[in-house]
Design goal:
Number of helices: 2
Strand content: under 5%
Number of strands: 0
Oligomer: single chain
Structural class: mainly alpha
């Protein structure tokens, strides 16, 4: 999904450049591509779908049960 965003935003920026659109469109598109690249970098850095699994569903809560205290 993230790669789809990246490819779409790159295509959009190229389209704006080729059609000589106002600078604002190119600037905003470039910002969007930069954010997409940051998200892609985070996906690769933090492991994507192969992230660390939790030991048990109890780890999903921030509240400790009485037996853990």
């Amino acid at each position: 999904m993230v790669m789809g965003w990246l490819v779409g935003d790159i295509f959009k920026v190229c389209y704006f450049i080729l059609l000589n659109q106002p600078f604002q469109f190119v600037a905003c598109g470039t910002i969007q591509v930069s954010i997409d690249l940051l998200i892609v970098a985070q996906v690769f850095y933090f492991g994507g779908a192969e992230g660390k699994s939790l030991e048990s569903p109890d780890e999903l809560t921030a509240v400790k049960s009485r037996k853990e205290l």
